[in-house]
Amino acid sequence: MRIVMALAVAALALASGATAATTPTPGGIRGTVIKSPTRPVCEEGVPCSAPAAGVALAFVRAGVRAATTTTSKVGTYRVALRPGTYVVRMLGRLPFGSPQPRTVRVRAGRFAVANFEIDTGMR
Description:
Layout: H1 2-22, E1 27-36, E2 50-51, E3 56-61, E4 64-70, E5 76-81, E6 84-90, E7 99-100, E8 103-106, E9 111-113, E10 116-119
């Protein structure tokens, strides 16, 4: 009986090890969101863009929200996602436009870099 139990445990350990080896490493998207322009008149040597802090982003695939994240104080974000193509949307009502680009492709085991710029509409 002990031999049978030991064999069962060994078989289970081998099976779970094989499963872990074939599980893909998570990938996703990381980047920075900036807003621009931040001044009505841009001057040489004076920044005319700023980090878009606290912006909530939704990542949608095939019409289903797969994940959400919020940008940091310095406008950065990172979100783990399965491989595929995602549409990025802002959540909530913000006083400026949508991020560009609007679609991002995720590959297995890799974090794509997708930086977004939000047009404030200021002219």
